[in-house]
Amino acid sequence: MPLIDEATLAIPEGAALEAVFWKGRTDFLPVVRKMARDTWRVADPMPAIRLLQAANRPLWTMPHRVEAPEQRRLRDGFLEVLAAANAPLLLHSPHEPVDGLARDGHLVRLMWHGSVKATGRWNYAQAALPHMLTFDRLGYAGWSSLAGVERREVLAIEQPVADAFHAAHTEPFLAEGQSKYRQDASIPVEEEGFVFLPLQLPNDSVIALKHFDAPYAEGIRRMVGSLAGEGVPLVLKRHPHCTDPAIGKLLDGLVAAWPGRVSVSRASVHALIRRARAVLTVNSGVGFEALLHGKPVVAAGKAEYRVAATELTDPDAAPAALATAEAAHDPAFVRRYLFLALNQYQIDTRSPVSFQRAALRVLCQDYIERVPR
After folding, report:
1. Are residues 91 and 211 in the same domain?
2. Which of 10, 140, 155, 241 is deepest in the core (most CB within 10 A)?
3. Would strands 121-126 and 132-136 be described as parallel, antiparallel, or unpaired?
């Protein structure tokens, strides 16, 4: 069998794609792998969706979650795509077993807020941006396959493509000042040149992915102390949903310990990021937003933006990590990463084509895993 360089393989469309399919798995599999890896390059995904759905015939399933508004957005987006492919979507109770409903257990499972890898399972959750959903085989945030992306995969994105997307989509979004949580744009930010540290909910599941052994609050205290001790000003912002008295006590203590160096703000994260020199976080979604603004990011935990940030494993070494992040910051590389994240690993819920590409990713992976060799 001749070797095929999938990196240079063109993705056929329409009748040309069907012709490759009928040649057999040997010819079709490299094309499917290429589509799975570079789904964003498929201009019209529906012909490939119809072909793969008809060939594999998986049963699509989705637990109904009344508490999750993102479930309704994913459901509505996929219903339109699957209806066009003559494929049903089975909505069921989260407690209802579905294993026996499909031939040979051939299911596609769309699971909310999961971090489990299994054949046919795809995990979705609210992404850092309000109109985006993460959609990933491994999970969300630092558990996702996006968190494992390597530099070579980012560099495969053509720079002009990434730059054009940033100008056409990212910059207008930033001008709107929207975020996942409501922001108070009326509060001014007078300072500049500070390190912005957005706090997370201390019981957030992603805190388990922190790189240091100390408890979350203790790690924050040490990071702030190490930077303030070197003369670096910091502005902290409490998570908008946090009511933990221990976090309030932590913030009061840091401001008292470092007067004139450490302050707390309730301003919009966008206003704070714009005025900051860099952003320091464990693995908050604000780190992703900071990359949109072109700021250096230091992450003290595993995050989906790992490849575009500087890793911090010791809270006391925050000054050195900050220096590394600022020296190594490459805005052009960051724009490539953002293009890949937003167009390949997430769903833009405003775009029907984005839902189509997500469905195509599922069906390509389904073909790779299930079709006999």
Report:
1. no
2. 140
3. antiparallel
Query: How does DSSP classify residue 113?
Result: T
Contact (CB, 8 A) for 78 and 89? yes
Domain with 46 in it: 6-131+349-370
- Torsions phi, psi for 171 (to 5 deg): -60, -45
Whether 177 and 305 map to the same domain: the answer is: yes
At how many degrees (to 10) do helices 331-344 and 285-292 cross?
A: 120
Written in H, E and C, the secondary structure of 305-317 is CHHHCEECCCHHH
Decide: 367 and 51 in contact? Cβ < 8 Å. Answer: no
H-run or E-run covering 29: helix 25-37
Question: In the chain, what is the greatest distance between 2 CA atoms, to the nearest angstrom?
Answer: 72
Cα–Cα distance, 299 to 287 (Å, whole number): 8
Contact 331, 290 (CB under 8 A): no
Residue range 3-16, pLDDT digits in tens: 566 777 899 988 99
| CATH code assigned at 191 | 3.40.50.2000
Place of tokens 């579905």: 98
Summarised one tens digit per residue, pLDDT across range 159-185 is: 999 999 999 999 999 999 888 888 888
- Cβ(184)–Cβ(267) under 8 Å? yes
Are 247 and 317 in the same domain?
yes
8-state DSSP, 145:
G
